Amino acid sequence: MNLFQLKEHGSDIKTEVTAGATTFLAMLYIVPVNASIMSAAGVPYEALITATAVITIIASILNGLWANTPIAMSVGMGLNAYFSFGLVKGMGIAWQTALGIVFLSGIIYIFISMTPLRRWMVETIPLDIKRATSAGIGAFIAFIGLQQSKIIVGSSSTLVTLGDLKDPHVMLALFGLALAIFFTLRRYKSAMILSILLTTVVAWVTGIGKLPDEFVSMPASMMPVFMKFDVLSAFSLSLLPVVLIFFITDLFDTLGTLTGVGMRANLFKGKDSVPLQRTIEADAAATFLSGLAGVSSTTAFIESAAGVEEGGRTGLTAVVTGLLFFLPLFFLPFFQSIPSNAIYPILIVIGVMMFSELQHIDYSDNAVKFATFFIVVGMPLMYSITDGLLMGALAYAFVRITEGRIKEIDIAMSVLAVVGILVFFVL
Q1: Are the CB atoms for 378 and 391 separated by under 8 Å?
Q2: How far apart are CA 316 and CA 318, in angstroms?
Q3: pLDDT tens-digit series, residues 336-388
Q4: Helix/strand/coil percent split, the chain, to 5
Q5: Are residues 376 and 423 both part of a single domain?
Q6: Strand pairing partners for 1?
């Protein structure tokens, strides 16, 4: 076990295994949730269960061995929703093309992560814009959760309105939402999966859902999604902004998670920290592989904090988490029996958690204030992470110019603003 330098990190095998199991329970929900979200785009559900588990295994073990940090990785919440509801349903592109976008963003991510451009990206995009982006994605996925669970519905006169809360399926979603909030506030380490399980049991008992004839089976084949990406269709000028936003959002998400978890465990010391650099490189490689595996972009999971709280300090924690994800491969019948309204409340709760990033933003800066508004409001209303971020960049640049502070426009924000002009007014 010297590979993980346990003694040097003040840990031992028992602590690392316990931490890995804790992280596994905390993020197990991603298997049914990701399969449910991406299958809404027409991607085969059974293959997604296997693909989600497999990419989690590969990404987490890869990071554990390469970076030796207790960070587990899996398909990122937010981009998977954007994949289905923004790209496939919103823009009308094929899911194979959307996978091509994920694949191309992974190539860019790998290139950036292995060059000085990584540090440039990290340092030239204002921290408050990163926080606003996280909050905007939170608002976007929470909106999707409310919409898909029918808590809010479309309206010809007001665009959206309150759904029929007396409908049994909506009541089930509200029950699941209440459970998820309760378990989260009570700091249960497996809050999300516990909420899904109990809501599913209630659905079975009340007849809203169907109890499966069996719970265990052999893993479903990945072949319906494996290597099904369409790079040629994704490799177009009109989709270039989407490819860039997938990369930027993935990087933001990972940096935010690593900052939060890293500070708690004192994992990363300085911007030139080797473990930090290697964790980003592992995330980039995993994103590239996710396009091959047939799922949306991977990212570092904030649920890794649960394992860190249990004392996990090395890559052995991430390896244990990855190995435990072999278990969900054999429970396809159970996952298929989970009603969608036991899944979508999880999006709402995760959205709220991401939305809370707004509390850290400095609103005394006018450029940040207006950019934040257009990013956070724009993403759900435009049904697009890309359009929301680009609109925010345009607002940021415009305010800086109006105030006569053009030299203070960060290079990365200038690039995003130019891309926004091209997308909205030229392309």
Answers
A1: yes
A2: 5
A3: 899 989 989 988 988 888 888 899 899 999 999 999 999 999 989 988 887 88
A4: 70, 5, 25
A5: yes
A6: none
End-to-end Cα separation, the chain, in angstroms: 54
Do 44 and 103 lie in one domain? The reply is: yes
Q: In this structure, are residues 122 and 254 in contact, taking their beta carbons and an 8 Å threshold? A: no
Same domain, 155 and 131: yes
CB 251 within 8 A of CB 74: no
Residues 324 and 386 in one domain: no
- Contact predicate 343/46, CB 8 Å: no
Alpha helices by DSSP H, 294-410: 304-309, 315-324, 332-336, 340-355, 366-381, 385-402
Residue at token pair 């708690």 = 264
Same domain? 346 vs 423: no
Q: What angle in degrees, to the nearest 10, is found between the helix axes of 240-265 and 117-124?
A: 80
Of the three residues 351, 385, 418, the one that is the final residue of a domain is 351
**Number of structural domains in the chain:** 2
In the block, tokens 């300085």 appear at 270
Please list, residue by residue across 293-314, b when 16 or more beta carbons sit within 10 angstroms of its beta carbon and e when fewer do. Answer: bbbbbbbbbbbbbbbbbbbbbb
Q: What is d(CA 427, CA 423) in angstroms, rounded to the nearest whole number?
A: 5
Q: What is the pTM of this model?
A: 0.83
Q: Is there a domain that residue 139 lies in?
A: yes
Q: Coil, strand, or helix at residue 233?
A: helix
Q: Are 294 and 47 in contact (CB under 8 A)?
A: yes
Average pLDDT over residues 36-54: 95
Of 306, 329, 351, the position where a domain reaches its end is 351
The DSSP bridge partners found for residue 161 are 153
Instruction: Tell me which residue range forms the domain holding 124.
Output: 12-351
Nearest to 130 by CA among 263, 253, 279: 253
- Asked if 213 and 95 sit in the same domain, the reply is yes
Closest CA to 416 of 128, 125, 133, 102: 125
- Amino acid residing at 19: A
CA distance 39 to 363: 39
